[in-house]
């Protein structure tokens, strides 16, 4: 199973990444402006990885320990 979106806000990481790069948004900015990460929070480590590396789809679990804030 691929993990490629924030389920709470129905936002695909590929779209979040595009928006974040265009507007030079930090993880906190994304959470504030798009909501992504501000619901259950499970997508936050994926969002951090996405913004850091450009990856938008994940085939394994990523936790806060893997991507500390
Ligand atoms: S999956 Fe992104 S806030 Fe819940």
* Tally of helical segments: 3
Number of domains: 1
The CATH topology? Arc Repressor Mutant, subunit A
Radius of gyration: 11 Å
| CATH class identity | Mainly Alpha
What's the count of strands? 2
Structural class estimated from helices and strands:
mainly alpha
| CATH architecture tag | Orthogonal Bundle
Order of helices and strands: EEHHH
Give the distance, in angstroms, between the N- and C-terminal Cα atoms: 25 Å
Q: Strand order of the main beta sheet, please?
A: 1-2
Share of helix, binned: 40-55%
List the ligand species. FE2/S2 (inorganic) cluster
Give the low-confidence spans.
none
Strand content: 5-15%
Q: Average pLDDT value? A: 96
Q: Characterize the biggest β-sheet.
A: 2 strands, antiparallel
Coarse shape: globular
Key words describing this protein structure:
69 residues; mainly alpha; Arc Repressor Mutant, subunit A; two-stranded antiparallel ribbon; 42% helix; binds FE2/S2 (inorganic) cluster
What report would you give on this structure?
This protein is mainly α and 69 residues long. The chain has one domain: Arc Repressor Mutant, subunit A. Helices cover 42% and strands 6% of the residues. It has three helices and two strands; from the N terminus they run ββααα. The chain has helices spanning 13-23, 27-34, 44-53; strands at 5-6, 11-12. Strands 1-2 form a two-stranded antiparallel ribbon. Strand 1 and strand 2 (11-12) form a beta hairpin. Helix 1 (13-23) packs across helix 3. The protein is globular and about 30 Å long. The termini are far apart. The mean pLDDT is 96. Bound molecules: FE2/S2 (inorganic) cluster. FE2/S2 (inorganic) cluster binds at residues 6-8, 36-43. Residues 6-8, 36-43 line the site of FE2/S2 (inorganic) cluster (FES).
